[in-house]
Amino acid sequence: MMRILGIDFGDKTLGLAVSDILGITAQPLDQYRTQGSEEDKSFFLTLVTRHRIGKIVIGLPLRMDGTEGTRVDKTRRFADWLQSFLDLPVVFWDERLTTKQALLILREQNSGPRKKKQQKDKVAAALILAAYLESERDEPPAV
Asked: How far is CA 57 from CA 61, 106, 109, 128, in A?
């Protein structure tokens, strides 16, 4: 079985989460600060191999009214870049309000401001991935 990688895409920092081997739960993994095309490529190749990733779910930053803006274009370009060397399926998932949800979770855990900043992106990635995994469980089996 392969795991699924969840990504909360940002201009400089990416939140990362990974599913368990059965695709039931999502755990925050890390935050990655982009460094440049070659370094980033090496990072993702290593990550995908180490965690046996078979699919990638990327949060799609739609506007509150559901329309697409410039952030969506950047996210789609990032996904195309990943697919160009990873050769894995990439799925987009509506990520509206996940960062706010992540901050609420961290606040409930009494995380300080510094810890919130360090963890919000990977918690948001876990929320995106968890929602995707739940939707997959809710779909009736193909006949």
From this structure: 13, 22, 26, 8
